[in-house]
Design goal:
CATH topology of the largest domain: Aspartate Aminotransferase, domain 2
Strand order of the largest sheet: 2-8-7-6-5-3-4
Helix content: 25-40%
Number of domains: 2
Order of helices and strands: EHHEHHEHEHEHEEEHEEHEHHEH
Largest sheet: 7 strands, mixed
CATH superfamily of the largest domain: Type I PLP-dependent aspartate aminotransferase-like (Major domain)
Number of helices: 12
Number of strands: 12
Distance between the termini: 25 Å
Shape: globular
CATH architecture of the largest domain: 3-Layer(aba) Sandwich
């Protein structure tokens, strides 16, 4: 009988919403639906209180202060604000050098490309076959003109964890701002993001079992001063003038609840995800594949593998109706272009073409690993 409810294994693209988060969202959609900018009545005050509560919940997760959290539409906007928002300051100070990596999300690479066209010098650091940058390469690339170092925490395609704590140590005493795209790690790898040398952190609620359309930019003070960002849009003055517009209170409240749940349940969630990773590797023992990256440096809810001799589209087709997964980033999946991440790792065209990404969560239903392996083996002819 056809399985009409395939198991969702594309959690790096987006996650299901936690039931408790949905309850909070509905409360502020249906009952406490006031505008947080309205000060003359109770519903407005309740909305403002909900926003501030959520701001504190997000701040607590990374060891920041309440007023260091700016709500945005998601990590993409936060990345753009972090990078493009520093441009004027960089020009004024004569610091027009930026360091990043070849494996960043397009939400970082494309803003960097825009600044490059405007005269900024952008250094993109390579990664090894394991998909991880060498922290020493950051030290070697630093100059007195370096304005910004932007390094993602966890790669969205491979799940590789980047050494942001080591980079933070390298940047001690240097004026460069340190931005971390934490879309895949916020609420999952908690301690590293609490490092006070990280100036800017981008996060999205829908990666941590919250709603789509809301995220945050955490801006840490340095010597009592916030990073000198300029807004990209204007009008209204909300969020310190950096992100004007009516605040989506239900989404913000849901994001705050998701952040609080992530903080209190992180250990149990990690354990559940690691159990799934172990089960996946055991089931895959009977097929021929290559693991893309280093298992020891992989976040526990992700595997990126290349099925030997089988195109990724063929793999996904043979698993149709059983599970839902992907062959790369959701933001670029429609383009069918080879993964720039796997290419940066030095892999062959075939290995890249054969690659699939499997990502799950603590909410994922029982995963049919054995049946997945059986179907793949049949296509592979094993």
């Amino acid at each position: 009988m056809k399985n009409i409810n395939p198991v969702y294994l594309d959690c790096n693209a987006t996650t299901p919403v936690e039931p408790k988060v949905l309850e909070v969202i509905n409360e502020y959609l249906l009952t406490e639906y006031g505008n947080a900018g309205s000060r003359t009545h109770d519903r407005g005050q309740q909305a403002k209180k909900a926003v501030q509560t959520a701001r504190q919940q997000v701040a607590d997760l990374v060891g920041a202060q309440l007023d260091e959290v700016i709500f945005t539409s998601g990590a993409t906007e936060s990345n753009n604000l972090s990078i493009l928002g520093l441009a004027d300051y960089g020009r004024e100070e004569g610091r027009m050098h930026i360091i990043s990596t070849e494996i960043e999300h397009k939400a970082v690479l494309e803003p960097l490309e825009q600044l490059s066209k405007q005269g900024f010098n952008v250094t993109l650091l390579p990664v090894g076959e394991d998909g991880v940058i060498d922290p020493q390469s950051v030290a070697d690339a630093l100059t007195s003109e370096t304005l910004l170092v932007s390094v993602m925490h966890v790669n969205n395609e491979t799940g590789m964890i980047q050494p942001i704590e080591e980079i933070a140590t390298i940047l001690e005493g240097h004026e460069a701002f340190f931005h971390v795209d934490a879309a895949q790690s916020f609420g999952k790898l908690i301690a590293p993001l609490q490092n006070q040398r990280i100036d800017l952190i981008s996060a999205s609620a829908h990666k941590i079992y919250g709603p789509k359309g809301i995220g945050a930019l955490i801006m840490r003070r340095r010597d009592y001063d916030l990073p000198p960002l300029k807004p990209l849009v204007f009008g209204g003055g909300q969020e310190r003038g950096l992100r004007p517009g009516t605040l989506p209170v239900p989404l913000i409240a849901g994001f705050g609840e998701a952040a609080a749940l992530a903080q209190s349940n992180s250990a149990q969630r990690e354990e559940k995800c690691r159990e799934n990773q172990t089960a996946a590797l055991k089931a895959l023992e009977n097929i021929k594949y290559e693991l893309n990256g280093d298992l020891e440096k992989t976040i526990p809810h992700t595997l990126n593998i290349s099925i030997t001799g089988v195109d990724s589209e063929a793999t996904m087709l043979c698993l149709k109706g059983l599970v839902e997964l992907s062959n790369g980033s959701a933001c670029t999946s429609a383009s069918y272009t080879p993964s720039h991440v796997l290419a940066a790792m030095g892999y062959s065209d075939d290995r890249i073409q054969f690659a699939i990404r499997i990502s799950w969560s603590h909410l994922t239903d029982e995963i049919p690993w054995a049946e997945m392996a059986k179907r793949i083996a049949a296509v592979q002819g094993v």
